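Progress narrative, Year 2. Work on dTDP-4-dehydrorhamnose 3,5-epimerase from Streptomyces tsukubensis advanced from sequence curation to structure prediction during this period.
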Amino acid sequence: MRRLAVDGAWEIDLRPHHDERGIFAEWYSDDEVSALLGAPMPVALAGVSISRKGVVRGVHFVETPPGQARYVTCVAGEVRDFVVDVREGSPTFGRWDSVRLGPGHWRAVYLAEGLGHAFTALTDHATVLYLCSAPYRPERERTVHPLDPALALPWPAGAERSLSARDREAPTLAEARRRGLLPAWSATVSRSTVDTRAGSPPRSAPPAA
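Result:
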């Protein structure tokens, strides 16, 4: 396991097993996640997305409370997965970290309630699996623009990006903050000790004005 640069986010090594038949990977272990969090992760929803190369999804998060913790991996193709701290009051607010996911990069990412999630498909047929701690409620879903220059997420250079209408029309982090759309860190359930030594360099949060 590796603590990411965003408080409440972890990278988990899936340790696949290879034999003459192929590969078996235990992509989620309740015992391992319980040891990490100090309690089991409730699973209310399991989802899958399949994306063509260049698709960008995010930055998505869920209103708190109750928020929605997520556990994410990629089982076909490859993605670059981003965790963004959009929680007002968090010691790592405005920072991000990223992990490459897919066969050959057998990892998963855990995101605590209130964290923003995004990824870009680096190949066609990029297949991402999600476990979520709360059911889908469209009225609670929120988005920050994935191309927000203040976040400066390093999307692949020169690649054609495909975004949904919802993501194209999303506010920047600063706009979402002004409009009161961001979750409060104090209202999130899962928090962990900050360690900014791991992962990507800290990113500055946009001004509140």
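Residues 191-209 have pLDDT under 50 and may be disordered. The longest strand covers residues 45-51.
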